[in-house]
Amino acid sequence: MPKRAGLTSTSYALLGLLATRPDGWSAYELAQQMGRSLRHVWPRTERNLYDDVKLLDERGLANSRREQTGRRPRTVYSITPLGLAALRDWLAQPSAPLVMESEGLVRVFFAEHGTLDDLRRTIRGLREEAEATERTVAAMVRDYDRDGGPFPERLHVIALMGKLLYSHREAVRSWADWAEAELAHWHGVTRDTGAHVPAGVFDEIVATVDRFPEPDEKPPAMTREE
């Protein structure tokens, strides 16, 4: 059995990428592909990815081989049968809870300590980021219907992810429109200086969750890597 202690979700993301190309990827190509395909849901620094793929090689989950590209040597990694088995085992386990990470939303959360212009600027920035992401994703998938992209055999799962990214950014843009409309009636960022509690928001949140069926049993939560 391969040694899996110390493997993280990023390790398994790299195994997933290795599984998509039997001929293998160089460490640089893996980092580029992570940035292209997963950075909107699992952003990681390029430096750490190089260490992670070396760990897969050390654990017997990937093979490495040296190749010559022009005058420059490179190391190419490919998944092993043990690596594929580890990936399948990981996919069968419950996932860690979804986490939303946004500096802009942290700024919104503490907006009463700034100014109204600060808050408006933050909300505008969140909308612009959402729009930029939509354009980036659209540029990647624009020609998929015509040529299938680099991995036509994976279009079914790519479509699932693409729909989620689009829907999430659409929700952010819709929220930004709503928030800016609310701020149009504010004169400050505290209730003493003219901020208002938007009507019906808390009732809407409660009413929404009341429509969900009660879960029979909660699966055990996995530990999320830092």
How is this structure best described in words?
The protein has 2 domains: 9-91, Orthogonal Bundle (Arc Repressor Mutant, subunit A), CATH 1.10.10.10; 103-194. It has 9 helices and 3 strands, in the order H-E-H-H-E-E-H-H-H-H-H-H. It is elongated and about 65 Å long. The protein has helices spanning 9-20, 27-37, 46-58, 81-91, 103-109, 116-141, 144-147, 155-183, 201-210; strands at residues 25-26, 62-69, 72-79. 14% of the residues are buried. Helix 1 crosses helix 4, helix 5 packs antiparallel against helix 6 and helix 6 (116-141) runs antiparallel to helix 8. The chain has a 3-stranded antiparallel beta sheet. Helices cover 54% and strands 8% of the residues. The longest helix has 29 residues, at 155-183. By secondary structure, the protein is mainly α.
